[in-house]
Design a protein that fits this description.
The chain is of the alpha+beta class and 371 residues long. The chain has 9 helices and 17 strands.
């Protein structure tokens, strides 16, 4: 398979999360390609959930290895949906996050089928990862028994010389403050919900400091973080706000519990304020000495002719759903920069190297099964 050409084709689809027409076209393109190779392909759909494409070389739901990823992207200018090759880099929306690596997975499926490797192998690609992966959750609810010994997650990092072994637990919290309306010129006759929110957020910061490019930075970056993603309060300029809400994006390390977060939030609340946990998950923590991870690392170092370092990642991964089911999750991607930004690119050589590493690993896995 010409991986970079497939990546470019995928990038031309404007699969911003929620763009059903383009997502359906991208899935149709993938389904047609994989069906012609002999793969079994289903497109899972459910009302109020984004579709998921499920590709495999076998029947059943028990796999030796699965590749997990997504085809949706964040919004971008029109020109970013016209992939460009320049100086060994592939530029455009989805180049790094993560259509190039979806193409790597499709290449692996072709290899497994054509070489008739004795592996139960599958690929799961969602279409709303950028907005919470509701589709993946619905898919896994339907396929409740699906499991895999190994999950290859290429949607992490951005440096092929690093293997991710830890990802944080993403928790989203909504804080609400309730005040009393009054004319803007008579603030003493009302209770300003916006001011109440400022006080609550100030209390929250006693537990979770604010970090900034031009301000404070943690000595150890493997810490709990919290950022205020959104604040809304007030109707018009000359009325004291009677309601305000804020959305908090919290990332917890593996030694921090949801209960400890709740205790801190409880202490931060004041009269007229309340909170609710919108969503929470689990961190993904892999043992660096896991034999599958060690074998993968060794093969990667052989391909790259470079030492592979273990790294921790602050972002979340959909692979956490499989980590909770006992899978060994191998988190590794190619190199690039500008994820979600206007200059997004991936190093073409790293895509090709990642593909080679993945094929070698699947070959080794198949070999171990025949012994």
């Amino acid at each position: 398979m010409k991986i970079i050409e497939v990546a470019q084709e995928l990038m031309r689809f404007r699969t911003t999360t929620g763009n059903a027409s383009e997502i359906n076209q991208a899935f149709a393109y993938v389904k047609n390609m994989m069906t012609l190779l002999g793969a079994k392909v289903d497109i899972f759909t459910k009302k109020d959930a984004a579709p998921v494409i499920f590709i495999r070389n076998c029947r059943g739901t028990d796999f030796d290895a699965l590749v997990l990823g997504h085809l949706d992207v964040v919004p971008a200018e029109d020109k970013m949906f016209k992939p460009t090759l320049k100086d060994g880099r592939l530029y455009g929306r989805g180049s790094l996050d993560m259509k190039s690596f979806a193409a790597v997975a499709l290449n692996s499926m072709q290899y497994v089928i054509e070489r008739k490797l004795p592996l139960k192998f599958g690929i799961i690609l969602s279409s709303d990862e950028e907005k919470g992966s509701k589709g993946t959750k619905a898919f896994l609810a339907k396929y409740a028994k699906i499991k895999a010994d190994i999950v290859l997650d290429n949607d992490v990092g951005g440096d092929i010389r690093k293997l991710i072994v830890k990802c944080k637990n993403p928790v989203f919290v909504k804080i609400k403050t309730h005040g009393r309306e009054a004319h803007g010129s008579l603030p003493w006759e009302g209770v300003d919900a916006n001011e109440l929110m400022f006080k609550v957020l100030s209390n929250v910061r006693k537990f979770y400091p604010a970090y900034d490019l031009n301000g404070a930075k943690p000595r150890n970056k493997w810490v709990d973080t919290l950022h205020v993603a959104k604040i809304e309060g007030g109707k018009v300029a000359n009325i004291i706000s009677d309601y305000c809400e804020a959305l908090l994006d919290v990332r917890l390390i593996e030694t921090s519990s949801l209960d400890s977060l709740k205790k801190n939030l409880d202490k931060a609340m004041i009269k007229g304020a309340e909170y609710e946990i919108i969503s929470a998950s689990i961190p993904v923590v892999m043992d660096e000495k896991n034999p599958h991870i060690a074998a993968y690392r060794k093969l990667a170092e052989q391909v790259l002719q470079h030492k592979i370092k273990f790294e921790y990642e602050g972002g979340a991964t959909d692979a956490r759903e499989f980590a909770a089911r006992g899978s060994t999750v191998i988190m590794h991607s190619g190199s690039g920069e500008g994820m979600h930004a206007s200059g997004e690119y991936v190093e073409v050589k790293s895509v090709e190297q990642l593909a080679e590493i993945q094929l070698r690993f699947l070959e080794k896995l198949a070999s171990s099964k025949t012994k």
